[in-house]
From TrEMBL:
The glycine cleavage system catalyzes the degradation of glycine. Residues 9-263 form the GCVT N-terminal domain. Substrate binds at residue 196. It comes from Candidatus Avipropionibacterium avicola. Keywords: Aminotransferase, Transferase. The keyword Transferase applies. This is Aminomethyltransferase.
């Protein structure tokens, strides 16, 4: 059995009473004081997450024919890096030839020859391998997965906490700035105002301690990946391996906004253009329980006549709505249905079809 990788913050989290679970080959905190309490802290005040399992890779250089690191990545990823300038971040996708999603990730553009990538933990090695195989001479891809930790401070009071801890906060959404050997990013996965700090692994413990001390007057709570999941599900944010996979395309997942259709090329562009033109046979939707049912991944989704039309990709109890919520992949012919059923154990529960986000937040 392969030993799980531990975050630089593992000992602190263990001492704080964290319950751990496996995420992408890492042992990461699932919860500290309880998922609901941590979720509500982020929605109402501030929470701090260790997300050091996320990948980190640096793409840099220029090829002999003048192609920069940014230009190279723009030939690979679906979104258009020409839309942003230095100091900006962009959500994008790496697709396979059939249009499925190998990974979704964030690109941080320092300059034309220097781009930081934050892929998902389980996919980081594959993303790096694909880019390395495709890169022309002069473009280098360096795996920095273990060199840096990532700490996310999220919630309405995150600005005050960052300021109290001495970090810059005057950043537009999807912008970042360098502070010595760290990076402060105005990004997050909760729907709330928040920041992600990419710090050297050997500094992570001190940064964590400083943030908790600065956040004490605001009731800051360490939050685990359980709350991160309920928060992102309320927003309708996709999770790789569930809403998007190598077999589920961005067209099906309603992520066409992250595809620059006018670009001449990106990995999987022919298959995606064809699917977009022909219209996908499946599409995603969000569901809110009418009763007490809580959907779980893999449960069947039913039309009003009882026929199976899809499956739940993510499902949980929403601490904000105090109802079961889910994301589903269903037959496109039923995309306009107002109500769908979900086979919850031995009964069918009714769910309203909603357009995400399912809650109002303070996001940009």
């Amino acid at each position: 059995m392969t030993e799980l990788t531990r975050s630089p913050l593992y000992e602190r989290e263990l001492a704080a009473g964290a319950k751990f679970a496996e995420f992408g080959g890492w042992s990461m905190p699932l919860e500290f004081s309880g998922v609901v309490a941590e979720h509500n802290a982020v929605r109402q005040g501030v929470g701090v997450f260790d997300v050091s399992h996320l990948g980190k890779a640096r793409v840099s250089g220029r090829s002999a024919d003048g192609e920069t690191a940014k230009d190279f990545l723009n030939r690979c990823f679906t979104n258009d890096l020409d839309r942003i300038g230095p100091g900006k971040a962009q959500y994008t996708l790496l697709c396979n030839e059939s249009g499925g999603v190998v990974d979704d990730l964030i690109c941080y553009l320092a300059d034309e020859q220097d781009v930081l990538l934050i892929p998902n933990a389980a996919n980081a090695a594959e993303v790096i391998a694909i880019l390395t195989a495709a890169a022309p001479e002069g473009i280098t891809i360096v795996d920095q997965h273990h060199d840096f930790a990532v700490i996310a401070v999220q919630g309405p009071d995150s600005v005050a906490v960052l300021q109290a801890a001495g970090w810059p906060t005057e950043l537009d959404y999807m912008s970042f700035t360098a502070v010595d050997d760290a990076t402060v990013c105005r990004t997050g996965y909760t729907g709330e105002v928040g920041y992600e700090l990419v710090v050297p692994s050997d500094r992570a413990g001190q940064v964590w301690d400083d943030l908790l001390a600065a956040g004490e007057p605001y009731g800051i709570r360490p939050a685990g990946l359980g709350a991160r999941d309920t928060l992102r599900t309320e927003m309708g944010y996709s999770l790789h391996g569930q809403e998007i996979t190598p077999g589920i395309s961005p067209v099906q997942a309603r992520l066409g906004w992250a595809v620059a259709w006018r670009k001449p090329e990106f990995f999987g562009h022919q298959a995606l253009r064809a699917e977009k033109e022909q219209r996908p046979v499946r599409t995603s939707c969000a569901l809110v329980a009418q009763g007490r049912g809580i959907p779980r991944p893999g449960m069947d989704v039913l039309a009003e006549d009882g026929t199976t039309i899809g499956t739940i990709t993510s499902g949980t109890f929403s601490p904000t709505l105090k109802k079961g919520i889910g994301l589903a992949l269903v037959e496109r012919s039923h995309a306009g249905d107002a109500v769908m059923g979900v086979q919850v154990r031995n009964r069918v529960e009714s769910f309203d079809v909603r357009k995400p986000p399912l809650v109002e937040t303070g996001t940009a």
